[in-house]
């Protein structure tokens, strides 16, 4: 009688002994730590498969930023057999990528926009009598409907998301932004706001991110203390930076030349800059503790582009840990207190000038 073949445990299921000797790996995703358990001999390809199955992020959308080395990795990997236990002990792994549902939401918004355009063209082809507006440039109207932001999304868990939505609408409808997007044929899937607490470190604050060259653009709209909104022109400047990443990823001379060109085009075509709008009064916060200056730096283009103001960063150094919302608000309060104290001393000096005896 033939002996029964030896049975081995399925590679997807760890035995009790294997679980004790398994590899516990912490991955940062959207600013949150996620702990994954893999076999001790797991490779980078095994990690990619687990992320696709458990987090619903397809391999085509995945990027792993491992600092300090080996840096940015994405499927298909150059070395798919790279073992995870061979990474430095204190290596930080950050997962970048959109889930299947997030991609579907963007695709739906773009599809809805295309359907509207097709319906409009069908109405024209059907011979309907549409009274032409001799004062309206229909070529510009069509281009603005094509080269725009397909969807706007505030963060619903933050206070008064309707204000953030109006801020995003103001950016979308800004005459200078619209003109630049038409000229460069920029079409962005989603324009959304960024949670300050998730993108604030002890060295810097990220103002904007561009994912997959225009699939999603995130902008830091709110102050660090969540008590107001930042200067509109600073946010618009950040948007110009992220739009330049639709064309060029790395922050090289060519990128900075394009960014500078887009900014000049936006300023030139902003016919509303001479007036005072209701939106500007609502959003501009003259007491904002964070004002743009010339001491800015870029965090790197590994996500399609980011714009950071604050301390300098380097791709060869591990990223600083983000501050919690409580830490960010406390730091903002400290900075405001310092400014108030400085202003009070200046006022006392003006009221009691030194005298020569």
From TrEMBL:
<protein>
    <submittedName>
        <fullName>WLM-domain-containing protein</fullName>
    </submittedName>
</protein>
<feature type="compositionally biased region" description="Basic and acidic residues">
    <location>
        <begin position="323"/>
        <end position="337"/>
    </location>
</feature>
<dbReference type="Pfam" id="PF08325">
    <property type="entry name" value="WLM"/>
</dbReference>
<feature type="compositionally biased region" description="Basic and acidic residues">
    <location>
        <begin position="1"/>
        <end position="10"/>
    </location>
</feature>
<feature type="domain" description="WLM">
    <location>
        <begin position="140"/>
        <end position="338"/>
    </location>
</feature>
<feature type="region of interest" description="Disordered">
    <location>
        <begin position="295"/>
        <end position="357"/>
    </location>
</feature>
<feature type="region of interest" description="Disordered">
    <location>
        <begin position="271"/>
        <end position="290"/>
    </location>
</feature>
<dbReference type="InterPro" id="IPR013536">
    <property type="entry name" value="WLM_dom"/>
</dbReference>
<dbReference type="GO" id="GO:0070628">
    <property type="term" value="F:proteasome binding"/>
</dbReference>
<dbReference type="InterPro" id="IPR029071">
    <property type="entry name" value="Ubiquitin-like_domsf"/>
</dbReference>
<feature type="region of interest" description="Disordered">
    <location>
        <begin position="1"/>
        <end position="20"/>
    </location>
</feature>
């Amino acid at each position: 009688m033939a002996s029964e073949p030896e049975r081995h445990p399925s590679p997807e299921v760890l035995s009790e002994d294997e679980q004790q000797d398994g590899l516990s790996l912490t991955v940062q995703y959207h600013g949150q730590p996620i702990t994954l358990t893999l076999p001790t001999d797991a490779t980078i390809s095994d990690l990619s498969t687990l992320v696709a199955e458990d987090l619903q992020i397809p391999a085509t959308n995945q990027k792993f930023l491992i600092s300090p080395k080996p840096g940015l990795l994405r499927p298909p990997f150059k070395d798919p057999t790279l073992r995870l236990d061979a990474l430095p002990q204190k290596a930080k792994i950050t997962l970048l990528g959109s889930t299947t549902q997030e991609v579907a939401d963007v695709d739906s918004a773009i599809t809805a926009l295309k359907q509207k355009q097709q319906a409009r063209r069908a109405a024209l082809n059907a011979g309907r009598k549409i009274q032409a507006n001799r004062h309206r440039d229909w070529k510009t109207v069509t281009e603005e409907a094509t080269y725009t932001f397909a969807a706007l999304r505030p963060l619903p868990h933050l206070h008064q998301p309707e204000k953030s939505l109006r801020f995003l609408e103001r950016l979308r409808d800004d005459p200078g932004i619209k003109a630049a997007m038409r000229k460069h044929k920029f079409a962005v899937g989603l324009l959304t706001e960024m949670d300050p607490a998730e993108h604030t470190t002890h060295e810097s604050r990220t103002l904007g991110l561009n994912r997959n060259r225009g699939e999603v653009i995130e902008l830091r709209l709110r102050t660090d203390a969540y008590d107001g909104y930042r200067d509109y022109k600073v946010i618009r400047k950040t948007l110009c930076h992220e739009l330049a990443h639709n064309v060029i990823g790395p922050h090289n001379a060519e990128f900075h030349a394009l960014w500078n060109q887009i900014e000049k085009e936006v300023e030139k075509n902003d016919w509303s800059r001479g007036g005072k709008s209701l939106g500007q009064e609502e959003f501009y916060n003259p007491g904002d503790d964070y004002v743009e200056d010339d001491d800015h730096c870029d965090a790197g283009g590994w996500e399609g582009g980011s714009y950071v103001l604050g301390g300098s960063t380097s791709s060869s150094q591990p990223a600083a840990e983000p501050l919690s919302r409580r830490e960010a608000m406390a730091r903002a309060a400290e900075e405001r207190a310092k400014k108030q104290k400085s202003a009070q001393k200046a006022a006392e000096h003006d009221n009691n000038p030194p005298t020569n005896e």
